[in-house]
Specification:
The structure is a homodimer. The first copy, chain A, is built from twelve helices and twelve strands. By secondary structure, the first copy, chain A, is α/β, with parallel strands linked by helices. The structure holds a DNA duplex. Chains A, B: It holds the Pfam family LacI.
DNA sequence: TTTTTGTTTGTAATCGATTACATTTAAGCA
DNA sequence: TGCTTAAATGTAATCGATTACAAACAAAAA
């Protein structure tokens, strides 16, 4: 591989001049700039990033840690993250945490080892000790998005999960539903708690009483939605007329459970999801759901991290708006 | 940040010894190894990867270029790629090409600039000139998976698209269908041509004649499947009784088009997809489709690239098996 | 012409780890 | 004990780019 020395030789100048011609052209005469450009082309030079990174002690790489690349929710968030990063000349390294603490640890290590300049965390399913340790030294550039830790304060981009769930529940109540169940995500997850709280308040506001066996826990997969939906629908007593699911995949699982149980959506059962993933428009019936501004979340999170890296003073906590999208999986409650 | 020098000082030895204690412990006495380990812990040392990469001129990073992270097809492929990479101590940098030639160029540049050791290409939608140029110098570690260029030979992991499409079509024929349409992916894409060829042969084998206006082109999205499906179903003459779609998302789009047109699947229309993505079990009806071993494709591709990097002698072209998964979107052809 | 000021370029130290080679130390053996 | 061999450690060059500082040069002002 040709190095900056080869270019310097070909352009008949010093390496310092080559470096300047490439990095800060205004510091160099027109003639030299030209000669260097030609020399670069001639020898086929390309800059050795490791050398630059070593010298500058930065890597222009941001690590994004997410629970699972396969989750369609994250793809738009990632698009947003990437677009901002690229504009600012940064790379994005996607790290699938995949329930593997060692892996997460190794991603965190990329920062002290100068392979990454900062981290964006999209999941709370990571070893708490690690995060706590990093958050302790204030210099560690770490931003959360989508989720958050309820016992640890980090710069965060999020939505108002409680409010969104509250509104979704209110909507069901407004349709006349009185027996409203919910399928949550993993109970230890703070955003799931928030959504659950929103659901409870929605019921309480309407003076409906909350039945504990209508609050069931899933894990955000199709399958868990299907299973929990099946269980909810086969209860002996009067079954719920509406189910609020904490994400779309589980809601789509419920749709299938309803079909299998011969329960017609939305006539006999209303279903609401959360996230508004692409598939929610193509399932049968189309899913009423809470839309999240995923791309904007990604963009904002990356901007926040870059601002922190540049030591700019910025609000460390931003909330973005959600919107209830009404489609055809919800309807007026059936008469008893 | 503490460096190797700080460790050396704390362990009362030279930097060379520290380096050896960490990288090749067998070259160092037990006592020293111990001292070094303690010193590392004490000063909180972590290796500067840029320095190591510079010295070793490698980066232990593999770039994976894909057309679109949002495409659920790729998530399992990526899982496979990552698992093998991590085992071998490599990082995976995911690059979303996103119809942006500049971006792709910048990903390709990571190799000469020592930020990446090799590239896995999952898309043919990249500037041909770039690929051709790289492929020209034989040293450039570049592997294709899932797709391929028909005018350029590169190490490749793939499936037999023609055969898979042939079998899918045969299956429809065996169910008694005589009017079988197809929705292809982008026509310039070699794998789409292969699948189309398989379809044609399937019809030809059965002595069915091929109707050109039953071969329509989509772009692998839900939406294009919906649109093309709608058009196919509203044709004046007798409409097709089966549609073979070149991926699942388009097939799911067709399912929706059929619902909207009041055509019952599978009684009046059979639909087959391709890929077997997660959704295909949760749509209504469940989708008959061609299963691809996505995770295995990823694993095999990464292994191939790592073998190439290690200069091991390996077959540069491997084909993996597909399987037709019959679910409920296909049935015997309706009587005329 | 001389001095001042500003522009352009070069010299050489530096970033942090690795490793060839040299040196020291220890172990084995007669 | 003295000699050979092996193991352990140290010295210092190296990877390639950046940049503080110095030097050279040109243009402007006196």
């Amino acid at each position: 591989m040709p190095t900056i020395k080869d270019v310097a030789r070909a352009a008949n100048c010093s390496t310092a001049t080559v470096s300047r011609a490439l990095a800060s052209p205004e510091k160099v005469s027109d003639a030299t700039r030209h000669r260097v450009a030609q020399a670069v082309a001639k020898v086929g030079y390309s800059l050795n990033a490791a050398a630059r990174n070593l010298r500058r002690s930065e890597s222009r790489t941001i690590v994004v840690i997410l629970p699972n690349i396969a989750n369609p929710f994250f793809s738009d968030v990632i698009s947003g993250l990437e677009s901002v990063a690229h504009q600012a000349g940064y790379q994005v390294l996607l790290g699938d945490a995949g329930n593997n603490p060692d892996r997460v640890a190794s991603y965190f290590n990329l920062v002290p080892s100068n392979q990454a300049d900062g981290i964006i965390l999209l999941s709370t399913e990571v070893p708490m000790a690690l995060v706590r340790e990093r958050q302790a030294d204030a210099g560690f550039p770490l931003v959360m998005a989508c989720e958050y830790f309820d016992n640890l304060s980090l710069p965060t981009i999020h939505i108002d999960n409680e409010q969104a769930a509250h509104k979704a529940t209110e909507y069901l109540v407004a349709l006349g539903h009185q027996r409203i169940a919910t399928i949550t995500g993993p109970a230890r997850n703070p955003i799931c708690k928030d959504r659950l709280r929103g659901y409870r308040h929605g019921l309480a506001d309407a003076g409906l009483n909350i039945q504990d066996d209508w609050i069931v826990e899933g894990d955000f997969t199709f399958h868990s939605g299907y299973e929990q939906g099946r269980i909810l629908l086969q209860q002996d007593k009067k079954r719920p007329t509406a189910i609020f699911c904490q994400n779309d995949e589980m809601a789509i699982g419920v749709l299938k459970a309803a079909r299998d149980a011969g329960v017609v959506v939305p006539e006999q059962l209303s279903v609401i999801g959360f996230d508004d993933i692409g598939f929610s428009q193509y399932c049968e019936p189309e899913l009423t759901t809470v839309h999240q501004p995923r791309e904007a979340i990604g963009r904002t999170a990356m901007r926040l991290l870059l601002d922190i890296l540049k030591q700019r003073n910025v609000p460390l906590d931003q909330s973005l708006k959600t919107q209830l999208i009404v489609r055809s999986s919800t309807a007026r409650a059936p008469r008893d």
